[in-house]
């Protein structure tokens, strides 16, 4: 058992078990007013950064980069009619990464003075030199031109940290009230807000100032049948986004209806938490008496909120080049999509499968101007017409696949963690020809429509996976006929993507997202979005997950 | 200054309390230092070191509470931090679940600190990682490993007279060894409060043997099998686990509210009911010599020896102080670690007494499927072997399972000798009718 998880089991954490997931923050709790202090001064940062770079070079580094970071988080937790906790945290410090004797070294400090930073730079060089004694191959970086002094800001309309806490609490309590009015026995809700103020500089000649925002309103409702002792939950269909507080002002144009008869509504760039909470309560109650699924082969119609997780696990992770090469073998695992497998040109998916990686899409969690090693971000193809064409890679990996350019997807969760290759946004391209959800299911003879992401598990090489969901509807002869329960599907990644029959057009395209994708040792979190439109997969194996105990 | 002595910590805590003008004030100092080294492809990939001390001040006016922190310790900063906590408290809503701070407490003595772990150096880490790599180089195998060590302390003091201080140390090491062609993989892991018995090469040997032995795995049909689950298949220090999930479900409030496997039909909870095989006894003990944990929980409540399951019967559940008072139950904090009682058999002894079965080294990517039944799914990984007539017959391909620890602990065949893993003490278990639902091509 994860010891630190067990230690955190009381009160808040126990309630949080009913939320989709529970973020971990490295910062310290602070007065909320601290979160409104002006962003860091670029001129001061440049002076401090130069101190680090000069100290590293003097100590013998052939390359150095420095990240001065102020990481702000605010989380509000409520249940039913009350606030459980409000946590405002701030983490400020500097991380210095160097190459000396052809080996990486890293050190971090929260003593943000020229002397403190220089000391960290010297320690990083010392560590690099010590480790170089057991190193067999020198680090080889893809060339990167310096950008000079540049900046990038997330295109938000309203900084969530500027909204009074009372107003944010009111929204969550109003959502809870909607859930309770509509039959929920319990409801936990939360609002997570993140602001990363990052200043990057390197010996390549870049000085990059960035201001990044993320937000995630979410909840979980529970409905209970006391007589039978049965309970069912339904979690929010919101997506964590790279947006400001404007995400919580619902706009009609951002609502996307599920297929006729399903009572599912998806959300694009704004979210109606009150409407979703009310619907969640009704659906959780309906789940208590829904028909238990008959196991077998079904055509699956997967909504983007659900499909985002399947893309994340079965495409996003296996195409991380560090996994492919074995650097994550002791924890996250390796990948079936090895360099040899790619050379064979076997189909990853059907011709309908076109998947791109990017760090650009506005409102996505991955969107930044430059990554954490000073590379300008871009979009690139991973899978074209079902064939694997590229991986996700950073500067010290590009040469391994014969390329001379990083993809710009290097990230560290804080100033005190070393940056490494992380997943960019990975998105399934929508159909170029017009296709609505109702058109997509009209030819399905025996199928299941799944909305919302739920239980998920995949092996360490990303072959065999099993996914649940939030709500399941039977499709018979092209029509939704009612709710199902106890549904999970098991598939092999390649068989699954090769069973992809069709996807809806751009009008149905929207993001799913994850605040806390874990990777690395010590483990680091990163945030990533996955865009897709509702998509059909034929003949997938569905199991029944109902069991009887005690 | 990451690790402060009790006296040095008290000097700061007393000074901070003297600045308080609130109805109640509680001050906590928390410090850690440590380092790590990571290897892959028989090379060091990353390593680092970090230390930090922080102070948290919680001030209360009536049922309103505010928290502020700092990590500088000059008088002006300390005064400002107290003032800030008081300002936040005045603006906060009243908490309907308010509980006054605890007064003076008696704590057990827990030896959760070992000097030789606190004294780990970068050289020690590099030497252990180097020994692990050398072994794999010689055997022409490829390893990826991680070693991390932490020394920490917590000191707490409040206006009601509570005083608490604890130091602790921990080191954990894990290694995955693979054959160069990727057809075999083995894993081993260990953790210690006191590192005197740690030997990275010895542990790497186990992982290497499993890697070499798992080449050319055969596929067998999914279904219900007798399994021997080694401790790394039951608990984990990096991921969710079957026994971890079970113990995380012992929250009294969730049970009373009707949303736990410990909820009773019609209301109430299942304390006192026999829900597991009579050989299942799980308890916690902060003073246990092999798996000590701090003698107090985060809110200052004392940790005592507590039995959770005795001879298959649910004996206790933990809860918040508010819930314990509201429902009139024993006020038991979360335990920090657990101990499952076992027997004397080694894993090898358990294999010898198995006519047909499967040895599972590790389970992976374990996620809840149904919270009602504690049904979990996940996969075998890094060493899965078929047993016939008391011997390992051949390696087999990995499986996905869908199983509940409740069902598992009712299908108990045998319990082995407990071992420390993830700070817990867990025996290997032989389980009948363990449910594998599909095959995986992953190695």
UniProtKB/TrEMBL annotation, chain A:
GO biological process, one term: proteolysis
UniProt key word Hydrolase: yes
Pfam families (alphabetical): PmbA_TldD_1st, PmbA_TldD_3rd
InterPro entries noted in UniProt: Metalloprtase-TldD/E_C (IPR045569), Metalloprtase-TldD/E_N (IPR002510), Peptidase_U62_metallo (IPR051463), TldD/PmbA_N (IPR035068), TldD/PmbA_sf (IPR036059)
This protein's UniProt keywords: Hydrolase, Metalloprotease, Protease
Top-level taxon in the UniProt lineage: Bacteria
Cellular component GO terms held in the UniProt record: cytosol
Molecular function as annotated in GO: metallopeptidase activity
Domain Metalloprotease TldD/E C-terminal: 295-542
Domain Metalloprotease TldD/E N-terminal positions: 64-128
Family of the protein in this entry: Belongs to the peptidase U62 family.
Annotated protein name in UniProt: TldD/PmbA family protein
Taxonomic classification: Bacteria, Pseudomonadati, Bacteroidota, Cytophagia, Cytophagales
From TrEMBL, chain B:
Domain Metalloprotease TldD/E C-terminal: 222-437
Stored InterPro entries: Metalloprtase-TldD/E_C, Metalloprtase-TldD/E_cen_dom, TldD/PmbA_N, TldD/PmbA_sf
One function term, GO molecular function aspect: metallopeptidase activity
Residue ranges of domain Metalloprotease TldD/E central in the record: 140-212
One BP term from GO: proteolysis
A Pfam family reported for this protein in Swiss-Prot or TrEMBL: PmbA_TldD_3rd
PANTHER family on file: CONSERVED PROTEIN (PTHR43666:SF1), TLDD PROTEIN (PTHR43666)
Protein name as catalogued: TldD/PmbA family protein
């Amino acid at each position: 058992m994860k010891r630190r998880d067990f230690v955190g089991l009381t009160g808040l954490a126990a309630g949080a078990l009913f939320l989709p997931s529970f973020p971990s923050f490295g910062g310290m709790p602070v007065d909320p007013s601290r979160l409104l202090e002006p962003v860091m001064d670029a001129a001061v940062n440049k002076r401090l950064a130069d101190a680090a770079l000069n100290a590293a070079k003097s100590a013998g580094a052939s390359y150095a980069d420095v990240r001065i970071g102020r990481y702000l988080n605010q989380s509000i937790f409520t249940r039913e009619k009350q606030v459980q906790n409000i946590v405002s945290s701030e983490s400020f410090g500097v991380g210095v990464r160097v190459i000396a004797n052809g080996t990486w070294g890293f050190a971090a400090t929260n003593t943000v003075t020229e002397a403190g930073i220089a000391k960290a730079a010297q320690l990083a060089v010392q560590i690099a030199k010590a480790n170089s004694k057991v190193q067999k191959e020198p680090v080889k970086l893809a060339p990167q031109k310096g950008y000079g002094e540049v900046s990038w800001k997330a295109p938000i309309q309203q900084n969530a940290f500027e909204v009074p806490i009372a107003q944010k609490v009111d929204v969550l309590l109003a959502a809870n009230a909607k859930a309770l009015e509509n039959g929920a026995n319990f409801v936990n809700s939360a609002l997570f807000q993140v602001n990363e103020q990052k200043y990057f500089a390197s010996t390549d000649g870049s000085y990059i100032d960035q201001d990044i925002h993320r937000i995630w309103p979410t909840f979980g409702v529970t409905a209970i049948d006391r007589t039978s002792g049965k309970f069912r939950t339904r979690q929010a269909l919101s997506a964590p986004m790279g947006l400001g507080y404007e995400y919580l002002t619902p706009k009609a144009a951002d609502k996307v209806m599920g297929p006729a008869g399903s009572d599912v509504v998806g959300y694009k760039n704004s979210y109606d938490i009150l409407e979703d909470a009310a619907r969640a309560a009704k659906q959780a109650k309906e789940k208590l008496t829904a028909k238990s699924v008959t196991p077998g082969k079904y055509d699956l119609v997967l909504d983007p909120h659900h499909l985002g997780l399947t893309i994340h696990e079965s495409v996003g992770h296996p195409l991380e080049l560090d996994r492919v090469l074995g650097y994550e073998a002791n924890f996250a695992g390796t990948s079936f999509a090895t360099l040899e497998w790619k050379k064979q040109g076997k189909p990853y998916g059907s011709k309908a499968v076109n998947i791109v990686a990017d760090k650009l899409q506005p409102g996505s969690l991955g969107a930044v101007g430059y990554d954490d090693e000073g590379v300008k971000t871009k979009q690139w193809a991973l899978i074209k017409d079902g064939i694997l064409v590229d991986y996700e890679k950073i500067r010290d990996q590009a040469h391994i696949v014969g390329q001379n350019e990083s993809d710009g997807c290097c990230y560290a969760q804080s100033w005190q963690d070393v940056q490494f290759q992380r997943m960019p946004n990975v998105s399934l391209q929508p159909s170029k020809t017009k296709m609505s959800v109702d058109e997509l299911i009209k030819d399905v003879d025996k199928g299941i429509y799944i909305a919302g992401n739920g239980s998920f598990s995949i092996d360490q090489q990303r072959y065999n996976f099993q996914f649940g969901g939030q709500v399941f509807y039977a499709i018979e002869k092209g029509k939704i006929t009612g709710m199902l329960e106890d549904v999970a599907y098991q598939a092999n990644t390649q068989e699954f993507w090769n069973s992809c029959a069709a996807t809806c057009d751009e009008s149905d395209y929207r993001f799913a997202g994850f605040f806390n994708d874990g990777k690395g040792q010590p483990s680091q979190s990163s945030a990533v979005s996955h865009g897709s439109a509702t998509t059909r997969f034929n003949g997938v194996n569905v199991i029944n997950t109902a069991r009887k105990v005690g | 200054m990451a690790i402060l002595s009790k006296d040095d910590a008290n000097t700061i805590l007393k000074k901070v309390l003297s600045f308080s003008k609130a109805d109640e004030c509680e001050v906590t100092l928390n410090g850690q230092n440590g380092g790590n080294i990571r290897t892959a492809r028989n090379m060091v990939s990353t390593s680092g070191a970090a230390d930090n001390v922080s102070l948290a001040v919680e001030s209360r006016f009536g049922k309103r509470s505010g928290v502020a922190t700092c990590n500088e310790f000059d008088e002006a900063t300390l005064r400002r931090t107290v003032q800030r906590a008081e300002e936040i408290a005045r603006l906060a809503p009243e908490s309907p679940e308010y509980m006054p701070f605890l007064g003076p407490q008696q704590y057990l003595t827990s030896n959760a600190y070992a000097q030789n772990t606190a004294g780990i150096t970068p050289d020690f880490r590099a030497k252990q990682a180097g020994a692990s790599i050398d072994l794999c180089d010689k055997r022409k195998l490829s390893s990826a490993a991680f070693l991390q060590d932490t020394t920490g302390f917590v000191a707490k003091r409040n206006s009601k007279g509570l005083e608490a201080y604890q130091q602790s140390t921990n080191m954990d090491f894990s290694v995955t060894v693979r054959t160069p062609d990727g057809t075999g993989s083995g894993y081993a892991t260990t953790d210690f409060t006191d590192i005197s018995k740690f030997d990275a090469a010895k542990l790497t040997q186990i992982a290497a043997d499993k890697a070499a032995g798992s080449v050319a795995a055969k596929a067998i049909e999914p279904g219900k099998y007798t399994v021997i689950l080694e401790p790394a298949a039951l608990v984990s220090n990096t991921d969710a686990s079957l026994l971890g999930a079970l113990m995380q479900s012992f929250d009294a409030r969730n049970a009373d509210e009707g949303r736990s496997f410990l909820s009773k039909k019609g209301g109430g909870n299942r304390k006192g009911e026999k829900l597991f095989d009579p050989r299942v006894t799980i308890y916690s003990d902060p003073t246990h010599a092999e798996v000590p944990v701090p003698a107090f929980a985060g809110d200052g409540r004392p940790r005592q020896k507590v039995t959770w399951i005795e001879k298959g019967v649910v004996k206790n559940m933990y809860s918040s102080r508010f819930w314990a008072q509201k429902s009139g139950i024993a006020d038991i904090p979360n335990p920090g670690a657990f101990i499952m009682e076992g027997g004397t058999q080694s894993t090898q002894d358990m294999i010898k007494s198995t006519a047909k079965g499967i040895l599972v080294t590790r389970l992976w990517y374990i996620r809840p499927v149904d919270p009602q039944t504690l049904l979990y799914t996940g996969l075998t990984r890094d060493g899965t072997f078929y047993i016939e007539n008391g011997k390992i017959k051949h390696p087999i391909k990995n499986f996905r399972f869908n199983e509940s620890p409740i069902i598992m602990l009712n299908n108990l065949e045998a319990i082995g000798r407990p071992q420390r893993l993830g700070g817990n003490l867990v025996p290997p278990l032989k389980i009948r009718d363990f449910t594998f639902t599909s095959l995986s091509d992953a190695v």
